[in-house]
Amino acid sequence: MYKLLLMVLMSVVFMSLYGLQTDEELAMHTVFQGKHGLNNAVHAAAQQSDAAKLAQGIHAIDETRAIEAAMAYLQANLRLNADNEPLPDTFLQSSVVVDLFKVVNEGEIFPYTYRDDAQDYTVTLERPGVIMFIRLAFPRTYAILQPITWTIKSSAEMVY
């Protein structure tokens, strides 16, 4: 009898470990997907040249077009709607929050160092660029892991 009870208990332990491993793998996949989506969005935003300033020989980013491009790429890559809520039948279950969107333009002295001690993030830009932070929550598959929320950070420079 005790062997049967031991077998049942070990099955519960093994299934819990399997659930934990599955959640950890999905969490890493989610953070990588978020990072790739944010990298693409920031790169697209950094390439939105201000045509009027470019005609004068000044390399600058059009801030309005930059945020539109960043949001369009972020929404396409993470499968979000216009309010940054996940589309139906997608893996994410909560909205993606944009914590920071900063355009570093020609008015700054380069190299420009952006430092955010609260987020432990420092980046040095050699030319105009974009810095963006998003907050992404992991939708747990099993209730073994505690809720996870990441602040994903990225930056990109204008290419010329």
Defining key terms:
two-stranded antiparallel sheet; 160 residues; 3 helices; 3-stranded antiparallel sheet
Description:
The mean pLDDT is 90. The protein has three helices and five strands; from the N terminus they run H-H-H-E-E-E-E-E. The longest helix has 45 residues. It is of the alpha+beta class and 160 residues long.
Can you summarize this structure?
With about 160 residues, the chain is α+β, with helices and mostly antiparallel strands. Helix content is about 40%, strand content about 20%. The chain contains three helices and five strands; from the N terminus they run H-H-H-E-E-E-E-E.
Topology overview:
Blueprint (H helix, E strand, L loop, with lengths): L1 H45 L4 H5 L7 H16 L18 E8 L7 E5 L4 E5 L3 E9 L11 E9 L3
Antiparallel strand pairs: 1-4, 2-3, 4-5
Helix pairs in contact: 1-3
Distance between the termini: 75 Å
Radius of gyration: 21 Å
- Major sheet details: 3 strands, antiparallel
- Tell me the fraction of residues in β-strands, as a range: 15-25%
Q: How confident is the prediction overall: mean pLDDT?
A: 90
What is the overall silhouette? elongated
Biggest β-sheet: strands ordered side by side in the sheet: 1-4-5
H/E topology pattern: HHHEEEEE
Number of β-strand runs = 5
